[in-house]
Amino acid sequence: MSAPVILLVEDEPSQRAVLSYNLKAEGFDVVEAVDGEEALLLASEAQPDLCLLDWMLPHVSGLEVCRRLKSGKQTRELPIIMLSARSEELDKVRGLETGADDYMVKPYSVAELIARVRKELRRTRPAALGEELVYEDILLDAASHRVSRAGHNIKLGPTEFRLLACFLEAQGRVLSREQLLDRVWGRDIYVDTRTVDVHIGRLRKALMQHGGGDPLRTVRGAGYALG
């Protein structure tokens, strides 16, 4: 699985450097923004898995960035942890009501921040953290890289394994070919969208080899979904 991508939005250079170093040491990919406008641009371009967002930013405040991200069609599901020197309960409530999923007051423990990042990612990218994912009779164990259906072991190639993990993480949601390309093949690699269809076909065949219906749904003009 590709490493989760963290969008780090912090205008103070030393704080940004410390956080970036520690996040990368934990195996995360990090993209950095120094102000609110850059944060909104990178949230769209880099499609991060989580955003660490400072409240006090130049140009566009962190609170406004949070509001826009949570109201955007492509970014509304993005987990946001707000970082702020504002410690009053009213400020924390304001941040959470704007859409932040968590709120940490500066100065904070980096170890605790990493723990909270992992907690949020367990909801949205569990496979990337080595968790087990289940849908009906399909089980994917990301730690041991094993897949089974109705008790039968299923052998999958690396690409099909990553595809299945993506679908299990987004059960019921339609994923476009472009989204699957970004998540499975990576944002910096050019692959024709038709390649997605080929690997979806292989995944379907593997999952149905011991019987059972097709768990993948083709949504014309939109992409694919599990369930």
Summarize, please:
With 227 residues, this protein is an alpha/beta fold.
What does this structure look like?
With 227 residues, the protein is an alpha/beta fold. It folds into two domains: 5-124, Rossmann fold, CATH 3.40.50; 129-226, Arc Repressor Mutant, subunit A, CATH 1.10.10. It has helices at residues 13-25, 36-45, 62-71, 89-98, 110-124, 158-169, 177-185, 193-207; strands spanning 5-9, 29-33, 50-54, 80-84, 102-105, 132-135, 138-141, 146-149, 152-154, 216-219, 223-226. The strands form three sheets. Strands 2-1-3-4-5 form a five-stranded parallel beta sheet, sandwiched between helices. Helix 1 links the parallel strand 1 (5-9) and strand 2 (29-33). Helix 6 (158-169) packs across helix 8.
Radius of gyration: 19 Å
How would you describe the shape? elongated
Let me know the number of strands.
11
| Strand order, sheet with most strands | 2-1-3-4-5
Instruction: Report low-confidence residues grouped into runs of 5 or more.
Output: none
Number of helices: 8
Percentage of residues in strands: 15-25%
- As for the CATH topology of the largest domain, it is Rossmann fold
Largest sheet: 5 strands, parallel
Structural class, from secondary structure content? alpha/beta
- How confident overall, as mean pLDDT? 90
- Could you state the order of secondary-structure elements as H and E? EHEHEHEHEHEEEEHHHEE
Number of domains: 2
Head-to-tail CA distance between termini: 22 Å
CATH class categorisation of the largest domain: Alpha Beta
- The level of helicity is 40-55%
What is the fourth-level CATH superfamily of the largest domain? Response regulator
Indicate the CATH architecture of the largest domain: 3-Layer(aba) Sandwich
